[in-house]
Amino acid sequence: MDETTMLSVTNLSVSIDGQPVVSGLDFELKNGERLCLLGASGSGKSTIAAALTGTLAATTRVTGSIDIRGHEVAGVPISRRPPEARAAAIFQDSLSSLNPLVTVRRQLLQPFLRRGVRGRAADTAVESLLARVGIEQPRRLLARYPGELSGGQRQRICIAVALAGTPGLVVADEPTTALDVVTQARVLDLLRELSDDRRMTLLLITHDLAVAAKLCERAIVLAGGRAVESAPMDELIAAPQHPYTRALIDAASVTVSALHLASQVDPTSTSGLPSPGPAREVSP
Ligand SMILES: Nc1ncnc2c1ncn2[C@@H]1O[C@H](COP(=O)(O)OP(=O)(O)OP(=O)(O)O)[C@@H](O)[C@H]1O
């Protein structure tokens, strides 16, 4: 693994109660890349997220390799990982991701205090973080508890908490599923903005093709705990190869134009579809 690689997953398998849930998964994520794991309910997405973030139940059996920045962490819980190999997590359920009994200010301060940033410097860091995630009037919000925020505000706070630890790798598991469409679009814009400078490497996990297409340049399609197709996002949508991917796209009823892929459309093409890109992988 070279220094341009943030995450390398090799032959990863996870079994729960003796049942295989994820089988033989291989993929790599380069620094600053935005990759999506796309699959229907039950395809193993959240299990993969938990394996990557070190939050699987202790009884789960993990084999294969998860290498984050040169550290082997397969089966290693988050508390035993070196700080540089801890992926930050953003989950669907922002209410249960935050401690309901602790104010927003205290939850945001914690990562800074752990790094020895205190007093005025810590408060300033929290305020600039809130500005970064687009929270207006941050001072009013800091004194509140998570239950006193809207869903969109709460998800922004979760993103801020994830970013406060200055993670290299962020694993976002269905981060917008619980939000209404307008708030969903804003949170997606925010994640895109935050990752545009390529300091954040993003692994998005979703069942929603439209969400994936807005944010990611590449996708791996999962079915039954296995990767069945891997391709650049525009190619995947324009010409899905695996029957499962085709079904996913048909079900989403999305069109290339609706996915704002116009900028990638080949102007010489009469089909209106993106031009073919580099090679792709499809399972039989
Ligand atoms: N704690 C558990 N005990 C037993 N089986 C589990 C457990 N967690 C997950 N599974 C099983 O593992 C499989 C994959 O589940 P997982 O939650 O990873 O899928 P998913 O793609 O994230 O689904 P969803 O989109 O519905 O959250 C499912 O068949 C699920 O029933």
UniProtKB/TrEMBL annotation:
Pfam families in alphabetical order: ABC_tran
PANTHER family registered for this protein in UniProt: ATPASE AAA-TYPE CORE DOMAIN-CONTAINING PROTEIN, OLIGOPEPTIDE TRANSPORT ATP-BINDING PROTEIN APPD
Stretches for region Disordered: 265-284
This protein's UniProt keywords: ATP-binding, Cell inner membrane, Cell membrane, Membrane, Nucleotide-binding, Translocase, Transport
Record's protein name: ATP-binding cassette domain-containing protein
Family: Belongs to the ABC transporter superfamily.
Topology of the protein relative to the lipid bilayer: Peripheral membrane protein
Domain of life: Bacteria
Principal location listed in the UniProt entry: membrane
CDD domains, sorted: ABC_NikE_OppD_transporters
Residue stretches spanning the membrane: none
Span of the signal peptide: none
Cell location: Cell membrane
Domain ABC transporter: 7-249
PROSITE patterns associated with the record: ABC_TRANSPORTER_1, ABC_TRANSPORTER_2
Biological source species: Luethyella okanaganae
